[in-house]
Design brief:
Radius of gyration: 28 Å
Organism: Aurantiacibacter gilvus
GO molecular function: alanyl aminopeptidase activity
Strand content: 15-25%
Keywords: Aminopeptidase, Hydrolase, Metal-binding, Metalloprotease, Protease, Zinc
Helix content: 40-55%
EC number: 3.4.11.2
Bound molecules: O-methyl-L-tyrosine, zinc ion
Number of domains: 4
Largest sheet: 8 strands, mixed
Distance between the termini: 24 Å
Cofactor: Zn(2+)
């Protein structure tokens, strides 16, 4: 049972209260109902007596009436699964409190008081990993969004800001390291084998940014001197044996700190910045003030155990959490509906950082791929919501690609419209104006308007309307003039049947066919449902390149002539547009193929055109290999399905694989040559060597599809000769999709080599669960019985089951067994870790967009979950929205 819904049985007079009926429907929280909290809590003193299975918490809150709110003599303190052991007002025991569900309500007679409450928790029983929990013998916390109420009773909402003083005591052997937010002010040993530490965080913060860690940890220590000369000690705490794998994270942290000073003028504000890596964590990482807690996946890396993309992931997540120190911590959110205020902005900041650290176009393509693969499907399904949602039942369900990634795109559009300089002026104004406050998206927009001098009246629709706008494009040519006809439609989404036109900034260029050149990129903003834009001086019809750099998160509908796509794929000077043309060429062909609209001859000639375009990519020596590798990646099956009203995942898989095989055959010699050339580049972490590794595995993927025997031989050779994880994993991925002894041998070798390294064993599970092998489902079923598998560790659960759920050919098996398997996982995981369980629901929630046979089977599984007697709020909300 979800503890949050456990009826309360005690009140302040220690009498048994009537248990209220179990709420069938968890309540809906609405944005429009926001009210400031009647009490301020300027200071908090916490005292922890730490133990793995019993931790005692004493919380002393100084509270005073909030002059900006309606007075209320009762202070409402949230709790989740807690019982108060003692309640004191101004040091005196009181019985003027009672429980309301899981919360504690306390009557306060005066204007200001000191409230002291003692609670006791069992971290070892906390499998949700929210609040204080045990991981591998250490204790750590996760408080965003509503975990603090599982530690002590508190107004657990982001607009209540307090300074924290924390005293922690624990066994010196079990917990030699005691960490909390802010600065360590004192520490010492007791006679009984325990020791203690006292931490003080001078910056007022909401409870979701509280963190505490206690355990046997070692640190990689370094330092950073800020632009104004503050010397900051940096620590990355890990398990003893992991220290040699923290170097990349530390370098990433120092780069992030320097970059935020240079690009956003943001300086770090404490003398200490600590990061702790834990292996049990629901998400990627958490930006707690001065004490970031990270999933080990986003800290630990070396060339033997991490791929190039793992290295990039670490750099990006370290930056993301560090950047939150300003966008999130110094300026926080008023309420959880404003989540995109900190997340959308921080994702944009980390994207811009990664663009600057590596290849700008490659990073842009990757980010757009994520948006299309994860956010577009969300925006077109039953879980669609605006980047600033209007309601929720469980806020954990709104840490979504929409709030994060579309949120970043929305701010990126503002930046595109005003330019970098004015954007910086606006972000400076935002930080200056709202420093120390709990702000709203509206505050951000207003700072943007004032600081950058732009009217965002209509643009606000991007915050309130869900759905990916569809822009239809037609180019007409008459005499000397080219006329662009644009129209837009924002699709209906749940709760939003009618939509208004939004401002859509589109970067475009018109190319002269003869010279292959254009007269400069332009920005047009479509603000109406329909509009025309004329361009003079074109004696011949130009070739249109539109939504360059993906300037707006929309889909473009256009019947672009194949020769124009081929032209752009070869000549566009915007690398993103070049990628896009190639993708369009492939997507439009595959859509026709899936529809059965092509006879043999048409199929052959379309594949030849694509092979020519890819051949040009292979031969183009102006491209670096990182970009070449990017251009070779085929549109995903999920994205292809998204471009169709109703998708047949089986047909999509067949046609995409058949095309890949045809390309592998037609370009066999070129791919073999590419693989040979790239294999000669020695290992290093520079762009050239990384590019070489990327194209090497891409070549193997095509070769394995076209000529499995050759692909197998080459992959096996790459596997055996690999001196780094990128090559080894790439080869193993290809082998895992094939049959034969090499597959078995390589998988066994990989497991034996890395047994005991949890992050690499995760890869081993994930490779098999995401493989192209026809028996993937059977493999997953048997891996679930592997001694290394557990439902208790979110990384392991994701490596097996999330990989499977996002492996279309396996998940969408026509028999429906894939759906059943995921529904079983949801039901088994829900009582253990509801947050992670609920994250599987969206895949089943796609049922309305899938062909009727499978659709019915998906819905059936959703209904089976819905009828389970006790569902968490998390899963209940996702399932009911998916069926609604
Ligand atoms: N604020 C974090 C994300 C995060 C959210 C909830 C968590 O609880 C399970 C953990 C992390 C970020 O954006 O990185
Ligand atoms: Zn974040």
């Amino acid at each position: 049972m979800d503890i949050a819904r456990t009826p309360s049985t005690i009140d302040g007079n220690n009498q048994l209260a009537d248990a209220p009926p179990e709420p069938k429907d968890p309540p809906v929280i609405r944005r429009e109902d926001y009210k400031p909290f009647p009490w301020l809590v300027p200071q908090v003193e916490l005292s922890f007596d730490l133990g793995i299975s019993k931790t005692t918490v004493q919380a002393k809150l100084s509270v005073e009436r909030n002059p900006a709110a309606n007075a209320d003599p009762v202070i409402h303190l949230n709790g989740d699964g807690l019982q108060p052991l003692t309640v004191l007002i101004d040091g005196e025991p009181t019985d003027s409190w009672h429980m309301e569900d899981a919360d504690l309500l306390l009557s306060l007679p005066g204007e200001s008081h000191e409230v002291t409450i003692t609670t006791e928790i069992d971290p070892s029983a906390n499998t949700q990993l929210m609040g204080l929990y045990a991981s591998d013998g250490m204790l750590c916390t996760q408080c965003e969004a509503e975990g603090f109420r599982r530690i002590t009773f508190f107004p657990d909402r982001p607009d209540v800001l307090s300074t924290y003083r924390v005293h922690m005591t624990g066994d010196a052997e079990a917990f030699p390291v005691l960490l909390c937010n802010g600065n360590l002010e004192a520490s010492g040993a007791n006679d009984d084998g325990t020791h203690w530490a006292e931490w003080h965080d001078p910056w007022p913060k909401p409870s979701y940014l509280f963190a505490l860690v206690a355990g046997q940890l070692v640190a990689n220590t370094d330092s950073f001197t800020t632009m104004n000369g503050r010397k900051v000690t940096l620590n990355i705490y890990v398990r003893d044996g992991d220290l040699p794998r923290t170097g990349h994270a530390m370098e990433s942290l120092k780069k992030s700190m320097r970059w935020d000073e240079k690009v956003f003028g943001r300086e770090y504000d404490l003398d200490l910045f600590n990061i702790v890596a834990v292996s049990d964590f629901n998400m990627g990482a958490m930006e707690n003030k001065g004490l970031n807690v990270f999933n080990t996946k986003y800290v630990l890396a070396d060339e033997d155990t991490a791929t190039d993309s793992d290295f990039d992931g670490i750099e990006g997540v370290i930056a993301h959490e560090y950047f939150h120190n300003w966008s999130g911590n110094r300026v926080t959110c008023r309420d959880w509906f404003q989540l995109s205020l900190k997340e959308g902005f921080t994702v944009l900041r980390d994207q811009l950082f990664s663009q600057d650290m590596g290849s700008e176009p490659v990073k842009r393509i990757e980010d757009v791929r994520v948006l299309r693969g994860a956010q577009f499907p969300e925006d077109s399904g039953p879980l669609a919501h605006p980047i600033r949602p209007d309601s929720y039942r469980e806020i954990s369900n709104f840490y979504t690609a929409t709030v994060y990634n579309k949120g970043a795109e929305v701010i990126r559009m503002m930046r595109t419209m005003v330019g970098e300089e004015r954007f910086r002026a606006a972000t400076d104004l935002y930080f200056d104006t709202h420093d120390g406050e709990a702000a709203t998206c509206e505050d951000f927009i207003r700072a943007m308007e004032q600081g950058a001098g732009i009217d965002l009246g209509q643009f606000r629709l991007w915050y309130s309307q869900a759905g990916t706008p569809k822009v239809t494009v037609r180019l007409e040519h008459d005499g000397e003039t080219a006329t662009l006809h644009l129209s837009q439609e924002v699709p209906a989404t749940p709760g939003q049947p009618e939509k208004q036109p939004m401002p859509i900034p589109l970067k475009l260029a018109l190319f002269d066919r003869e010279t292959g050149k254009h007269h400069g990129e332009q920005l047009v903003t479509l603000t109406k449902a329909q509009d025309n834009f004329s361009f003079a001086g074109f004696a011949q019809p130009p070739v249109l390149s539109i939504n360059r750099g993906f300037s707006a998160p929309v889909t473009i509908q256009r019947d672009t002539p194949v020769e124009d796509l081929v032209f752009l794929a070869a000549k566009d000077d915007d690398p993103f547009a070049r990628y896009e043309a190639l993708q369009d060429l492939i997507v439009s062909h595959l859509k026709q193929a899936v529809d059965g609209a092509l006879d043999l001859a048409a199929m052959q000639s379309a594949r030849e055109a694509i092979a020519r375009a890819l051949g040009a990519v292979l031969a183009d020596d102006t491209l670096d290999d990182l970009m070449r590798g990017e251009l070779l990646v085929l549109p995903s099956e999920t994205y292809l399905a998204e471009t169709m009203l109703i998708a047949d995942p089986g047909r999509i898989h067949e046609e995409r694989q058949a095309m890949r095989a045809a390309l592998g055959t037609m370009l066999e010699a070129e791919f073999v040559a590419l693989h040979q050339r790239a294999s000669a580049v020695p290992f290093s972490l520079d762009a050239e060597a990384r590019g070489a590794r990327k194209v090497k595995t891409q070549a193997l993927i095509y070769l394995a599809a076209g000529n499995p025997e050759l692909g197998k031989q080459m992959a096996w050779a790459q596997y055996q000769g690999a001196d780094n994880m990128t090559d080894r994993q790439g080869a193993l991925m290809v082998l895992t999709g094939l049959t034969g002894i090499e597959r078995t041998d390589a998988l066994m070798d990989f497991y034996n080599r890395y047994q005991g390294n949890a992050l690499v064993v995760d890869k081993w599970f994930a490779l098999q669960a995401s493989s192209m092998h026809p028996a993937c489902m059977a493999h997953v079923e048997s891996l679930a019985k592997h001694p290394d598998f557990t439902l208790k560790n979110p990384n392991r659960v994701r490596s097996l089951y999330m990989a499977f759920a996002y492996n279309p050919h396996a998940f969408h098996a026509a028999s429906g067994e894939g759906y059943k398997l995921i529904a079983d996982v949801i039901l088994a995981l829900d009582p253990i870790n509801p947050q992670t369980a609920a994250r599987f629901v969206p895949q089943l929630g796609r049922w309305r967009r899938i062909e009727p046979g499978r659709s019915a089977l998906m819905k059936e599984q959703l209904e089976r979950i819905a009828s389970a007697p006790e569902l968490s709020r998390d899963t209940y909300e996702q399932v009911s929205r998916s069926l609604g």
